[in-house]
Amino acid sequence: MKTENRIDTLFRNKQKNVLSIYFTAGYPKLEDTVPVMEAIEAGGADIIEVGMPFSDPVADGPTIQESNKIALDNGMSLKKLFAQLAEMRKTVSLPVILMGYLNPIIQFGVEKFCQKCQEVGVDGLILPDLPMQQFLDEFKEVFSRFGLRNTFLISPQTSDERIKAIDEHSDSFIYMVSSHSITGAKSGITQEQERYFERVGQLGIQNPRLIGFGISDHESFTKASKHAHGAIIGSAFIKVLNNASPESLNNDIGIFIKGIKNGEYDYTSKA
Amino acid sequence: MKIEIDKNGFYGKFGGAYIPEMLYPNIEELRDSYLGIIEDEDFQKKFYDLLKDYVGRPTPLYFAARLSEKYKAKIYLKREDLCHTGAHKVNNTIGQILLAQKLGKKRIIAETGAGQHGVATATVCALMGMECTVYMGEVDMERQKPNVERMKLLGATVVPATSGSKTLKDATNEAMRQWINNPVDTHYIIGSVVGPHPYPEMVAKFQSVISAEIKKQLQEKEGRENPDIVIACVGGGSNAAGAFYHYYNTPGVRLVAAEAAGLGVSSGKSAATTALGKLGILHGSRTLLMQTEDGQVVEPHSISAGLDYPGIGPVHAHLFDVGRGEFVAVEDKDAMKAGVELSKLEGIIPAIESAHALHALNQIEYKPDDVIVINLSGRGDKDLETYIKWGEY
Ligand SMILES: Cc1ncc(COP(=O)(O)O)c(C=O)c1O
After folding, report:
1. pTM for the full model?
2. Which of A257, B65, B225, B275 has its CA 20 to 30 A from that of A8?
3. Partners of B15 in the beta sheet?
4. Residue A48 in contact with residue A35, Cβ under 8 Å?
5. Who lines ligand 1 at CB under 6 A?
6. Tryptophan synthase beta chain-like PALP domain: which residues (chain B) (predicted)?
7. Does the structure show a pLDDT above 60 at B370?
8. Whole-angstrom Cα distance, residue B224 to residue B139?
9. CA quadruple A94, A100, A104, A109: dihedral positive or negative?
10. CB of B289 within 8 Å of any CB in chain A?
11. What number of CA atoms fall less than 13 Å from residue B92's CA on the CB side?
């Protein structure tokens, strides 16, 4: 039996409008990681996804490619990240998920990586280049030994059968990629996308679902939340970080997150 | 140990399909259908007819008398440089475009470094009347301008990859991203034995025509199918995989792979993956990869754009790992010398990639009567400017 972690607690208490915010560790400045996390929590989001920067992020669009590059240029590494996160549980209580690509983790050492995650209080992982079979064959055992939940992605092309299999092997939320796309794609939600959301909604899967990729404002967040437990915002948030000054960073994050939730935010001038 | 791919797409520890879920349906479709399609009689006939009439196969196995005299061995050159478009790359693009048609795809995308694979892809797309987009690093577009124009002349759209180091690995990233964005109607023609399973084995199968021909031709010329040594250069490793394929499991045949050492293996400016790489994951497969200790992929360097890749196909990582392949690292200056030497001795100006394989003759041991086949993967026309800049001829 698994012990309950922060992800379980969140979804037990909240089934609608769950807001998960992604940003890249070490961006915009190397030491911004934990302050940005604190601001995301203060702003009223529900989950924090911390991106581990990689030189070759194949599932990401220009905005997140750029934030990865800047973070690496700033000197970000997994070693540095764990040092930054060492004290995070003193100030951050939301579920924290690390998101990134496999190669840096393999270099760091998978076992050591998982141990560090547990030590600093990370709840789960999203690794876009880790498909289900490889997860089951090589990673599942060690993740669960260190209490880490793995989130799988599904896309409009994923068959019903495979979605059910993924659901069966999931112990976190399912990340519904909103369209055929890399991150940071066109904004807004089409009818075709809504039909996909509805199709997945009717499959009767047991894990909660969050919709991500191309969610950027109050309207798309609300629409996505209608069809799932909530949504994930990445590129649009990175743009806020990019446009903020060091002094305004905290404030801008708060305004953006509140705007996503209640609609009072002028995206055209800020993002 | 038998060199072969297992049912999960691994050669020993290397290979697999580490891809985002968004690409899973495409990769699954390829994995489940490629063997059935390419082993089909009708497909085989179309493939070999095109290789014969359009590409100009079989390419000659040429006994290089003056080179042999100089190196005191019996040296044959497998003349992939005489393929249409000037390199072996077209063997693979012919195969994959026929496959794409069978799969009902309407568009083709590809990555390219030196532009040879891009040209070979643009060529077969023109041949089949299919829309073609080639991703190429901005830096490479500058270095390989004539090939950019060739692709355009053939009707392809060339899109600069502007992220990262703006070379081959970034072009590959961009092609993968665009495949994620267009998964339904588009086929991605990968240019070497890299990428997620089944690409490495599929590309090797299309290129294996090289060693199939060598066997037959050597039988005619030497009365034996097996040389003592086969030498090929390795970027991603497709020409080498093709030249080695039918000899993988013939222990008497030595397989020599020439990697690019750039300015020297320990200079920080090289592409000698087996010498410098560690186990990693890039572009969908687990393989040897040049990377920092934090697991960031490093920028390789080679004077030849076609060898300028930080990884190596998983089958070569396996050949290296189990000791079946002998890997030598050839420096820029030595490759250039070998290219000039072949030009003067045999009247053949090789691609600088292939010149790396030629120089390996100086870096391995062999006996005076050994029969050595060197895979001359491409011709040097595209490299004229580099030869001119080099100047020492
Ligand atoms: C002539 C030639 N040889 C070799 C290569 C390296 O590729 P591979 O190792 O896949 O054969 C290239 C790549 O562009 C090439 O153009």
Report:
1. 0.96
2. A257
3. B10, B286
4. no
5. B 87, 113-114, 116-117, 192, 233-240, 306-307, 351, 353-354, 377-378
6. 56-378
7. yes
8. 46
9. positive
10. yes
11. 33
